[in-house]
Amino acid sequence: MQQRALVVSIHDVAPATQDRADEILRKIADLGATVSSLLVVPDYHRQGRAMADPAFCAWLRKLEQRGHEIVLHGFFHERARRPNETTRAQLITRFYTADEGEFYDLGYDEARDLIEEAQREFAAQDFRPRGFIAPAWLLGAEAERAAIDAGMTYTTTLRQVRDFVARQEIASQSLVYSIRSSWRRGVSLGWNRWLFSRLTSNALLRLSLHPPDVSHPQIWRQIRGMIERAVRDREPMTYQSWLTRAAFAA
Ligand SMILES: [Zn+2]
Questions:
Q1: % of the chain residues with pLDDT over 70
Q2: What is the pLDDT of residues 91-143, one digit of tens each?
């Protein structure tokens, strides 16, 4: 039987969010979650290229040396609204993600160009991310094909880890908080409390954090409690190391 694991991922890592991401990493390390998957946005909201920021790159490099994993997380992390959108597209991209579903309906060529541009920029700083995780986990079929052809080896969605190499889908729903408004925070707390209790038998427990989570005391208190309980019988690891071990166990 496969070992019980905890993967904490930090979403939306960029120079603009570095301070809060670093605060989260220090706090969760104190709780025993010493490694995580860092979802880095190449040019977060077009504020500037992450790889052009030497202090940010140095910080990432240090984290990678300590066992954290660098993952590509979209490119700009924003999606331009389009004319004639269907109600479903509007609902998903505006209500659910606040216009951040960048790879939800990109065409193959557009998606592949962005992923390869990111790979070049990251490789120039000696980072070779293997995972590609779309903003809000919204990866359309065309964009997924582009990610595979660009050499990315896995992705995650809200409910799955998808191993492109082994062509396997591992069911594991992530815990994640919606903190945009107070009612969403309230719903999130109840939902995640319920979900956490349902997920105890999962071999892989996924906890997806966003930099603002640390600024909401009630949210952070719950996250802290979950990590404290999880590390009692789960080993903290990255998605990449989870997949490597799964391959050996197969
Ligand atoms: Zn994100």
A1: 91
A2: 655 555 656 788 988 999 999 999 999 999 999 999 999 999 999 999 999 99
| pTM over the 0.70 mark | yes
Distance 151 CA to ligand 1 centre (A): 21
Q: Which residues surround ligand 1, an ion (CB under 5 A)?
A: 11-12, 135
Report yes or no: 239 and 9 within 8 Å, Cβ to Cβ. Answer: yes
Closest by CA to 40, choosing from 64, 7, 67, 65, is 64
Question: Could you tell me the pLDDT band of residue 90, with boundaries at 50, 70 and 90?
Answer: low
Q: What is the CATH number of domain 5-249?
A: 3.20.20.370
Quote the ligand 1 centre to 2 CA distance (angstroms): 29
**Ligand 1: centre distance to CA 156 (Å):** 12
